[in-house]
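Suppose a colleague, Dr. K., hands you the sequence of a protein chain of 99 amino acids and asks what its three-dimensional shape might be. Before reaching for any lab equipment, you can write down a predicted structure in C-alpha cell form. Begin with the sequence itself:
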Amino acid sequence: MLIADAGITVWVGVLLLVGVLGFFVMVVALVFRFLGWILRTLAGVFRGSRNAATPATNTHGRSLVCPHAGCGHINGPTALYCARCGRPLRRTYDVNTYG
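The predicted structure, expressed as C-alpha cells, is then:
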C-alpha cells in the first residue's frame, strides 16, 4: 500500500511540475509577443504616413505588404484590401523592399 501511495504522489508531483513549467513558458511567450506588438506599433508610428491618397497599383506582379502599423501582412499582387486587417491598400509596398 505504501508503494502505491508513493507512485501516486510521484505522478501528481510530475503533473504539477509539467503544469507549472507550461504556465511559465506560456507567460514568457505572451510577454515576447506583446513586446513585438509594441515594437511594430512604435515602428509604424515613427515611420509616419506616406501619401495615403495614392491608390494601390501593382504593375510588376509582386506581392503587396499592408502599410498599416501592427499588420504588415503580405497580400497577393491584385489585392485591393488587406486579407488580415481588411483595410484598403493605398500604395504599392513591395516585399523585396523590406527584405
